[in-house]
Amino acid sequence: MQLSGLDIAIVLAYLAGVFVLAQWVSREKAGHAKDADDYFLASKSLPWWAIGASLIAANISAEQIIGMSGSGFAIGLAIASYEWMAAATLLIVGKWFLPVFLRNRIYTMPQFLERRYGTRIRTVMAVFWLGLYVFVNLTSILWLGSLAIAHVAGIDQMAALLGLAVFALAFQLYGGLKAVALTDIVQVVLLVAGGLLLAGISLDRIGEGAGIWAGFERLRAEVPGHFHMILSPDNPFYKDLPGISVLIGGMWIMNLSYWGFNQYIIQRALAAKDLAEAQKGVLFAAFLKLLMPVIVVVPGLAAVLLAPDIGRPDAAYPAMMSLLPAGILGVVFAALIAAIVSSLASMTNSISTIFTLDLYRPREQGDQRRLVRTGRIVTVVAMALAVLAARPLLGSFDQAFQYIQEYTGFFTPGIVVIFVLGLFWKRANEAGALAAAIGSFVLSIVLKLAWPALPFIDRVGLVFLSALALAVVVSLATRGAPEKDVIRTDDVDYRTGTSFNAGAVAVLAILAALYAVFW
């Protein structure tokens, strides 16, 4: 693949534009120095459009674009369940989780655990999330992102990796979450525009000039097996997406953990001006999630006909990019960079938030300027660690996306148990929560070793039910500690406005139609 002068100019214009925009939105009024709320929660003033766009920009990165296009090539449209079921999950988060978080002025997930259960679990989970974010998520985004950039631009991968790290730091280090969230609307517009251009041109090429719809119909006719959302047990990829279990099993647990209790994601909603604005933001994100398979799966489907001999499925997206004319290639390449950089910036900001507000401030009680300075130092250190760890941790993996799923899946069921019981069952205590966290990890390893043929999604579901039972039993068998629980739920109003309700009905109706057509 060869980038033309026009393509390079478009990419450079994007990089310069997003950097200038980030510095402009991060400026403060004369005489006002940034405090912790400004830096970590964007002054709790984010509007709905920034929340929704930032949720998607943080979520979609190289592992989604490259990995899901590759899965579209190998498995088919069934991989879109990860995106479409996330849309329904966001509605749950908006209606039942955010009212409690915002009523109690929660700014980090470990803080919620301390105020609900006690200090031990806050520290344990803060350290866990820091390790996960730095050595699994951040390294994966850097490694896969640099692979994609190196492949497209024809540059050395380590140079691409360092370039991504430096730029992600440079544009958001001063402004914090505000710089990330308020530039994400640009990132998402570019991501959507670039993705739709790639999908449209690929389908038009399949249609041989008869148009996009003709290309889609030909694709469905020639590879019908790639257009089933629910895989049968004889499908070679059934272990990855085990049929009806996708709709009623462990994928719900994975989505609830990711969208509802993950600092990296939920921080945007916690920074909303008010609950109504947060709910409109997650609704906007739900609609965007319905569109994502067109952007991240359809190019992989198109590659089945346009590039059947690519060898590795993960080469599907770059193969489709190689078909683009000059100028359009620059836009799509800039969109890929935007997705990677936004995710890197979001991840490092969340790492600095957890370290500073959950580990540093409770012990040091630092002043506001010291907190902001600490956050910036942690941001740089986290990125440096990820740069150093990326090759040793991921260089030998053929599919780094599996690395992410495997390690996070050991803990996901326990995290969901802890938070769901913390939100909705007052008898749950710290002993029960710790039992669920430890039990989730132990049970996941036992099941993986004892039952290797069990699909990953089914294992997550079984471990969740076991960890839930364990947490309930331990909580009932040990003394409750109501004095530790300062989370108020008695006066939380779960009613939602007309616009949210109408939008939620529309999202669910579209989901039902999609599954009915492509079952």
Largest sheet: none
Query: What is the helix/strand order?
Result: HHHHHHHHHHHHHHHHHHHHHHH
Question: How many strands appear in the DSSP assignment?
Answer: 0
Overall outline: globular
| Separation of the first and last Cα atoms | 37 Å
Number of helices: 23
Strand content: under 5%
Q: What does the average pLDDT come to?
A: 90
**Stretches with pLDDT under 50, minimum 5 residues:** none
Q: Structural class of the helices, strands and pairings?
A: mainly alpha
**Helix coverage percent:** over 70%
Q: C-alpha Rg, in Å?
A: 22 Å
Task: List its salient traits.
74% helix; 519 residues; mainly alpha
Any overview of this molecule?
The chain is mostly helical. Helices cover 74% and strands 0% of the residues. It is built from 23 helices and no strands. Helix 20 crosses helix 22. The protein is globular and about 70 Å long. The mean pLDDT is 90.
